[in-house]
């Protein structure tokens, strides 16, 4: 295959697009394979560092650094690709790798092989991303929040008041984000919306009630059978649990009892019982993006929520 002269300049726009598909491919397009290798390595080093910083309690504005790493990486790719294209000689001597089909092969390998392998590694060992669709955790977490959840030490037993992502029991697992209010052996009850644990009323500044009389008196038909099986001996035949009045129940060994912070709007352990500690999927770290589902405009971003840590 002979080499050809390209009388047109290397396009900065094309170089940038190629780099967005595969870091460094824009420099390959501009005839700088060594610079491409450097871009590739630096990009994934920044990515790994940003993920690692999610687990570090950074002070002040530095706490937003891991979230800002994504846009900064895009700027880095664009600058490197643009500079490479503008510095390419004119006329440009096309190299054997400067063929459209090699670009297509590289992009396909990146999208369907390399990026999937990287994503699988990150979500298996480090973090997963979730979108919050419901109001069950208001005011701590809002509908429309996008949350990164730590997979590191997901098998450790959470502490009381920890936020966790858990798989609900039953058929197809549903992942939900709740707060741990009881561990194995704890005795829990609720009276008029006030949670009691081991005979002590719990101060829960993060909790809210909707002030709905309908919610307050709603019978827990789904949860009654499980609660009866773990109820402290009492008049079980007359036991009629509601959303705000139930128990006292004893949490089974190696289990967690979880509730949503928005108590009247949460589908939680009051309905489906305690869950095994093995069903913990991870622990939320930070809100990396947030959209107001009731907002006005094409993109109602809640900027103040981005970077919020738990």
Brief summary of the model shown:
By secondary structure, this protein is α+β, with helices and mostly antiparallel strands.
Placed side by side, the strands forming the largest sheet appear as: 3-4-13-5-6-11-12
SSE string, helices as H and strands as E: EHHHHEHEEEEEEEHHEEHEE
Architecture (CATH level 2) name of the largest domain: Ribbon
Helix content: 25-40%
Structural class: alpha+beta
Largest sheet: 7 strands, antiparallel
Structure commentary:
This protein is α+β, with helices and mostly antiparallel strands and 310 residues long. It folds into two domains: 4-125, no CATH class; 128-305, Umud Fragment, subunit A (Ribbon). It has eight helices and 13 strands. A hairpin with a 2-residue loop joins strand 8 (194-197) and strand 9 (200-201).
Layout: helices, strands, pairs:
Layout: E1 4-6, H1 12-21, H2 25-29, H3 33-53, H4 65-87, E2 92-94, H5 100-125, E3 127-131, E4 145-150, E5 163-167, E6 175-183, E7 187-191, E8 194-197, E9 200-201, H6 213-216, H7 221-229, E10 246-250, E11 255-259, H8 269-272, E12 275-276, E13 280-290
Antiparallel strand pairs: 1-2, 3-4, 4-13, 5-6, 5-13, 6-11, 7-8, 7-10, 8-9, 11-12
Helix pairs in contact: 1-4, 3-4
């Amino acid at each position: 295959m002979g080499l050809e002269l390209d009388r047109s300049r290397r396009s900065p726009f094309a170089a940038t697009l190629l780099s967005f598909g595969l870091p460094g491919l824009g420099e390959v397009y501009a005839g700088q394979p060594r610079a491409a290798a450097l871009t590739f390595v630096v990009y994934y080093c920044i990515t790994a560092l940003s993920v690692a910083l999610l687990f570090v309690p950074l002070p002040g504005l530095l706490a937003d650094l891991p979230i800002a790493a994504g846009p900064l990486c895009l700027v880095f790719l664009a600058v490197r690709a643009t500079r490479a294209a503008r510095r390419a000689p004119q006329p440009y001597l096309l190299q054997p790798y400067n063929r459209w089909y090699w670009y297509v092969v590289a992009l396909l390998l990146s999208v369907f092989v390399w990026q999937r392998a990287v994503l699988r590694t990150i979500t298996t060992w480090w973090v997963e991303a979730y979108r919050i669709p419901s109001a069950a955790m208001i005011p701590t977490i809002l509908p429309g929040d996008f949350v990164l959840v730590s997979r590191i030490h997901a098998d450790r037993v959470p502490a009381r008041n920890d936020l966790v992502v858990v798989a609900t029991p039953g058929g197809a697992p549903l992942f939900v984000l709740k707060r741990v209010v009881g561990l194995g052996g704890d005795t829990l009850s609720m009276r008029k919306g006030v949670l009691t644990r081991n005979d002590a009323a719990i101060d829960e500044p993060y909790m809210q009630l909707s002030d709905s009389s309908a919610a307050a008196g709603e019978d827990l038909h789904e949860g009654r059978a499980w609660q009866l099986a773990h109820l402290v001996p009492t008049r079980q035949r007359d036991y009629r649990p509601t959303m705000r009045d139930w128990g006292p129940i004893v949490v089974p060994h190696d289990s967690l009892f979880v509730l949503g912070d928005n108590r009247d709007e949460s589908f939680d352990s009051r309905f489906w019982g305690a869950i095994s500690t093995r069903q913990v999927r991870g622990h939320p770290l930070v809100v990396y993006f947030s959209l107001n589902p009731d907002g006005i405009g094409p993109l109602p971003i809640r900027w103040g929520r981005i970077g919020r840590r738990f």
